[in-house]
Amino acid sequence: MKPRVLPVLLPVLLAACSSGDDPRVPGDTLDSKPFAGISDSETLHLTGTEPFWGGEARGTTLTYTTPENQAGETITVDRFGGRGGLSLAGRLDGMQLDIMVTPGTCSDGMSDRSYPFTVTLKLAAETLYGCAWTDSQPFSLTKNPSKTL
């Protein structure tokens, strides 16, 4: 390609790359505001499925718990309100910890609870999944049709 043609084609190529909805990116592509569904002052409760884990986050503090450490370990995290949810990032035991919380109905698979947020937790190379709720957006109890009284 000749050098003179590149400046003319570059805007067209960039427009083609950024046009349309990308189903891999959460949220409304027309909304440029950061996610505000969980305020810094709210406690975010986290519960993970096997292997079991949990925690609570408020502001820039996260307490991460496991069955082996029920008291948990408290770390400082950075909060980021992205287009489709909230991210928390910090270091736990020297490893990178990233938590992504997105709105959406979530089930822990073991109770009759329905949670308002889904969670993906990445600790070093391990990826874990779970659910979350806040005091203003609590979990609800759902009747499991497979259970009989």
How would you characterize the overall build of this protein?
There is one protein chain. By secondary structure, the chain is mainly beta. The protein has a domain at 44-141. It contains one helix and nine strands; from the N terminus they run αβββββββββ. An eight-stranded antiparallel beta barrel has the order 1-2-3-4-5-6-7-8.
Précis, in short:
The protein has one helix at 5-18; strands spanning 44-48, 54-58, 61-66, 69-81, 86-92, 95-106, 113-123, 126-134, 140-141. The protein has 149 residues and is mainly beta.
Describe the structure using short key phrases:
149 residues; mainly beta; eight-stranded antiparallel β-barrel; 9 strands; globular; disordered N terminus; Lipoprotein
Rg, Å, rounded: 20 Å
Gap between N and C termini, in Å?
73 Å
Which class of secondary structure composition applies to the elements? mainly beta
Sheet with most strands: 8 strands, antiparallel, barrel
- Total strand segments: 9
Helix fraction, binned, reads under 10%
Overall pLDDT confidence: 82
Which descriptor suits the 3D outline? Answer: globular
Order of helices and strands: HEEEEEEEEE
Q: Count every helix, treating DSSP H or I runs of 4 or more residues as helices.
A: 1
Q: Report strand order across the widest sheet.
A: 1-2-3-4-5-6-7-8
**Residue windows where pLDDT falls under 50 for at least 5 positions:** 1-20
β-strand percent reads over 45%
